[in-house]
Amino acid sequence: FEVGTPQFSTFNFQFSTSVGCDSVVTLHLTVNQSVETTEDLSICESDLPYTYNDTVFEVGTPQFSTFNFQFSTSTGCDSIVMLHLTVNESVETAEDLSICASDLPYVWNDVTFNEAGTQTVTLTADNGCDSLLTMTVSVTEINTAIEIVDLGCPLGLAIYQENAEYQWLDCETNTVIAGVTDSVFMPADEGTYACIITYEGCTDTTDCIYFLGNGISEIQLSNIKVWPNPARTLLNVECGIENAELQLFDATGRRVISQLSSGDVTLLEISNLSPGVYVLHIVTDGKRVGTRKVVKQ
How far apart (Å, rounded) are the C-alpha atoms in residues 6 and 126? Predict the structure, then answer.
């Protein structure tokens, strides 16, 4: 039977028996075909080493490969499987992001950044394999410290964030003060002030701070005396008014001492105060009648 014999055939064969009679044999021939199949298999790089029909594909298997496997069918014929193997790579990406401190906490892919840092999440890529995403977040911090400073003769308000844009604000009216855009501001009027600071694309506002104002006379009562100045532990105040309120403010505008005066000399205990510049207000009948700048050593 040659190559090309039909799958199903019948043949008659005539023989002679041992006694010389005819013997006819009818042969039903079935030619079973070899089975050839093609299989496409995609796995992830993280699946390696991978076992397929007792064959192990090790780490480092090329991304695209073709393998032939030979088996036997139930009829005992050859079965050839051509395997097209694709090893999909895991996807790794890194991203940098700069945000403002006011954006915290920042949520990215269900991960929360409460401060600057790096986080990694594992997602599923379009090819069904792991996608490793790494995010590095940097946070732009703005120094919103604001203080009353001694500028030589007048006092002023100062901001310590450098290389920024500044816009001073009247807190009592919640309006910007036109043209006042420096880091140092010397208000002429008594009031409460703040500064809007813009730095590297971020904006923040300082706390409001009370300021006496440079337009108010430094001495409204000529008989006010404060000594020693600078002082370390005790401050003597003589104003000639009984029951006047002596109010001492620190550089942040916070009132740290409030005490009634005697008719003579009033002692203010300042030993627990931090060194720096303070402003003393003398108030009577709801009106400020005098101010003094005090230095605590």
Answer: 48
Q: How many CB atoms lie within 10 A of CB 292?
A: 20
In our burial notation (b when 16+ CB lie closer than 10 A, e otherwise), range 118-152 reads eeeeeeebeeebbbebebebebbebebebbbbeee
The structure's pTM equals 0.54
Write out pLDDT tens, residues 211-247: 866 554 443 555 788 999 999 999 999 988 888 889 8
Token representation of residue 106: 């920042």
Question: In this structure, what are the phi and psi dihedrals at residue 207, rounded to the nearest 5 degrees?
Answer: -65, 155
Among candidates 264, 148, 248, 261, which has minimal Cα distance to 195?
148
The DSSP letter of residue 159 is E
Scored b (16 or more CB within 10 A) or e, 236-253 reads ebbbebeebbbbbbbbeb
SS3 assignment, position 248: strand
Helix (H, G, I), strand (E, B), or coil: what is residue 200? coil
Q: List the one residue out of 145, 143, 147 whose CA is nearest residue 278.
A: 147
